Amino acid sequence: MSNSTETESLPGQRLRERFPLLALLIERMLLSVLLLFAVSVLIFGGVEALPGDFASTYLGQSATPQAVANIRAELGLDRPLVTRYFEWLGGAVQGDFGTSWASRNSVSEQVGNRLGNSLFLAGFAAVIAVPLAVGLGMLSVHFRDRLPDKIINVISLAAISLPEFFIGYLLILYFAVNFGIATFPATVFEGMGLLERIKAIALPTATLVLVVLAHMMRMTRAAILSVMSSAYMETAELKGLSAWRAIVKHAAPNALAPIINVVALNLAYLVVGVVVVEVVFVYPGMGQYMVDAVTVRDMPVVQACGLIFAAVYIFLNMLADILAIVANPRLRHPR
Amino acid sequence: MRLRDISITAWIGMIGIALALICAVFAPLIAPYGETEVVGGVWQEADAQFFFGLDNLGRDILSRLIYGARTTLFVALAATVISFSLGILLSFIAAVSGGVIDTVFSRFNDLMMSIPTLIFALVVLAVLPQHLVVLILVMAILDSTRVYRLGRAVALDVAVMEFVEAARLRGEGTTWIIFREILPNTLSPLLAEFGLRFAFSILFLSTLSFLGLGIQPPTADWGGMVKENKDGIIFGISAALVPGSAIAALAVCVNLVVDWLLKRTSSLKGGRGDA
């Protein structure tokens, strides 16, 4: 990915000589911006290029050509693609995503309310899942090929194979219906106290945690194991360090970069997992908004949600790279 | 290789997959009732006659499960095969040709992968007509980006070997090098990847159907069955969990086989460990 700025101007070169780390980070951020721009072209242009006319879908089978032309003019679909794209992008950058075709409401208003809810849910899940996964991964390496490791391995393999909605409904059936200790559906509204809010999202959070925990743990385990098989770990063992000390003092610092990467990748995965979990728990977030819009083919909403999800995803991936570069000095000097 | 080298977990996985395949192939013979036949009351309890009870319209869940195996396996398998062929072909072309072709393919692949698969699928399915072929193609193309990434890495390892060089000097074309030199030497890791992609396809299809964007009713399919019966959960009716467990069980089985394949591959390479 580092070959993208071959034609760097003079100030860029000077910056790179004096602050190599800063230059590398700026380069990575510029790449993300470029990527996001390309994604926006893909989401807008690619979708327009696909077969299927919105206007005729919108009016149904019995549409007259005149009615189709009217609705196309009303929605602005009769203007050139490039013009519409730049108008859309210009609006999106300023936080204006146009109006929904289905409800005629402002998309940004809805997104504004729901994005916070989604991020709260995903963030809360991450706060629980990350330490748990890294801890379990280390535990699993410590007891490698013994009983605890094998149990963790089998359970995590099973957990990876479970669809999100299955875990969700299982939790609902046991904790909300049979025991009645949790609430379903997970309704949140403005002005709700923090404690109440956390209680309402307990089950969706648990589902998300279970979904990402296994992935994150297995990847953490693999990352630490690949460090463990290196020569300096053998030395540590031969000079008589205890296994735990070897892991904490020698393996962990070197495994930090891959683990950070794993965590960030799984946070990105969390963002997607949110979509299904929100539908299961009828949680008023971005995911549910998007799925509803897809069902009625409400394109402005779909494109806005798609762009926002992609932006969050790209941002988290960028964060992963940046943290990895900062944590691992070797990555600062690409060959 | 001998049969007793296969681990117990791999056997369990293979038996599970075989069971699902048998259900899929012989569905009309095995299923006690029709796919869309209404045989009793809504959400009737399970008894001797109806093994898993009845669903939200009074159809036999067991029968729909068996028919659903057919749809789910067929769509997932078709998508995996297409995605695999596409991903492998493009990645091998990129690895063998190198240069501009490699750069263009790989950058485009990076771009496709920078949008989460589910989100991408939602955006595309919002525009495209609802049709089985469209669904399979969308799943296949989105998944092929993952295959491409692995295929390219594996092929690059092989493409620098002497025998490939020898074939080039002999004057063989790109097609020969791809199919006769590289493919046979990368088959083992690719087979494991195929299993992994298949498990992912099953889960992905189920997710799409669950969201109402995959296979359309009244055709039985496991993800769709969860959606149809989800409202029963609030009343303590576990009808939605039956197809859900079927999806989970099948995915677990595939993963068990893949796990064993991967271990076997890594020991063939001289044991690079679990990583």
UniProtKB/TrEMBL annotation, chain B:
The keyword Transmembrane applies. The keyword Transmembrane applies. It is a multi-pass membrane protein. GO terms for cellular component: plasma membrane. Keywords: Cell membrane, Membrane, Transmembrane, Transmembrane helix, Transport. GO terms for biological process: transmembrane transport. It comes from the Bacteria. This is Peptide/nickel transport system permease protein. It comes from Xaviernesmea oryzae.
